[in-house]
Amino acid sequence: MVTRLRAGAIAGTVVGGCCASRCFNSGTWQQGQAGLFALAQGHFDTARAGIKPATLRLPDDCSYCLSHVSLSCLSSLGRASEDAKRFQLTEQNPGVNTAIWSGMMSAQETAAEPRPNHSEPEPEERRVPEQPAAMLEEDMEVAIKVVVVGNGAVGKSSMIQRYCKGIFTRDYKKTIGVDFLERQIVVNDEDVRLMLWDTAGQEEFDAITKAYYRGAQACVLVFSTTDRDSFEAIVSWREKVEAEVGDIPTVLVQNKIDLLDDTVIKNEEAEGLAKKLKLRFYRTSVKEDLNVNEVFKYLADKYLQRLKQQSAEETEVVHTTSNKIGVFNTAGGSHCGQNSSSVNGCDVINLRPNRQRTKRSKTPFGSCRLLIVSRHKSGEGLGRRFIFQQDNDPKHTAKISKEWLQDNSVLVKENLLCPVVVDEMTDITTSRYGALPERLYVLQSGKVIYKGEVGPWGYNPEEVRKVLEKIN
Ligand SMILES: Nc1nc2c(ncn2[C@@H]2O[C@H](COP(=O)(O)OP(=O)(O)OP(=O)(O)O)[C@@H](O)[C@H]2O)c(=O)[nH]1
């Protein structure tokens, strides 16, 4: 069975990245998939989010697959622009408001198959403006996951709302778990999509929020001018984030400086803390819209600098090791493409190097940072799926990857020009991009007092809210 998805707008609120996806039919979990889930509620536009379209082949026994969005480089596929016009789930997955994106192989495998009949007009609300093909071909953008952390009521949600929606509300509504908004900006001529994760400030949500730090690429540590505790908690917030994601571009923010008259933190204390933590320090007033843009611009800039630095280091590796860095071309499908062949009765995927690697070039995968190749072999269902993760991290240029590819009948024809990580559905993708807890729990004195259904379908924040209100 082939389930096809087309790009565009999905009715949905992104609730998290996923580390696994579940086939409801077979009950099996497919691990190692990365990305963002969209759930019914609100609006999430995949095209705007920079997610490129693909068709996806689901195994024959899987008619209701809750799957993933992966950061794959599909823009170069001939069909991409056509597919990108709008998103639509076919009749085979009714009611499943999930974006499923897969890697090159899936897309190429299905390319030869007949398209389902979409002759019926789409409902008005599903239609999205068509995008010029050229944009889809070339506009790969950098997406940065930013987590905003700090004690409760310091203004995290307000800051994100101000930045993404340009609004400020006086009402305080405690964040339960996490929330998400995004904004696209241009920094040094680069399109950057900031995905801002608003996390709850209260300790009782730690278990939930920590899961969302995973894969974060930048962090805002916020304290309030009028809340001494929030200032003193900064070091511990930093440690929590670092424990999950290591050293990422981070900024220290003192919010509510419009209330400077009521300050409980001396200037030199705040500056001293920034110095001690070696962080850029901003004073903001979300209320007065002071310095908020600067905070996020700085982070985006810092992140881009790191990317550039990484690229430069990789180039060095090209000259010094036999494992060259670049992008690899996954020509051919997994079982019948012209570039696949058979060795000892096994299918072989031929990976060919692509010699160019220029940003925004028309070269296939030219600006790809992560390439996931999924491979299904008919009849073997979920068991035969390989994911090659090209994330340009020199550490991953491991000999072992190559050996693994060869052991699994993936023929590497020449030296690949890129580091290749073989993610055997284990933890690499998960730990970097996954963020979705399997269930929501509420614990009290070490005891589970609420256990939700398997998420994200089974998430029920309202239930959680009620439980929390009861125990507070
Ligand atoms: N005066 C002033 N009030 C602010 C500012 N920023 C936020 N607030 C107010 O502070 C309160 C808390 O703001 P939130 O954004 O909900 O705080 P939060 O950090 O997200 O809180 P949690 O969700 O509990 O973690 C709200 O009443 C806001 O209106 C600011 O810059 N100045």
From TrEMBL:
A GO biological-process term: system development
EC id: 3.6.5.2
Record's catalysed reaction(s): GTP + H2O = GDP + phosphate + H(+)
Keyword Protein transport assigned: yes
Membrane topology qualifier: Lipid-anchor
The keyword Transit peptide appears for this protein: no
Localization of this protein: Cell membrane; Cytoplasmic vesicle, Autophagosome; Cytoplasmic vesicle, Phagosome membrane; Endosome membrane
Pfam hit, one: T4_deiodinase
Stored InterPro entries: Iodothyronine_deiodinase, P-loop_NTPase, Rab, Rab23, Small_GTP-bd, Small_GTPase
Cofactor(s) needed by this chain: Mg(2+)
GO molecular function, one term: G protein activity
GO cellular component: autophagosome; endosome membrane; phagocytic vesicle membrane; plasma membrane
Alphabetic keyword roster: Cell membrane, Cytoplasm, Cytoplasmic vesicle, Developmental protein, Endosome, GTP-binding, Hydrolase, Lipoprotein, Magnesium, Membrane, Metal-binding, Methylation, Nucleotide-binding, Phosphoprotein, Prenylation, Protein transport, Transport
Subunit structure of this chain's protein: Interacts with SUFU.
NCBIfam families recorded: small_GTP (TIGR00231)
UniProt similarity note: Belongs to the small GTPase superfamily. Rab family.
Protein name according to UniProt: Ras-related protein Rab-23
Organism per entry: Conger conger
Source lineage: Eukaryota, Metazoa, Chordata, Craniata, Vertebrata
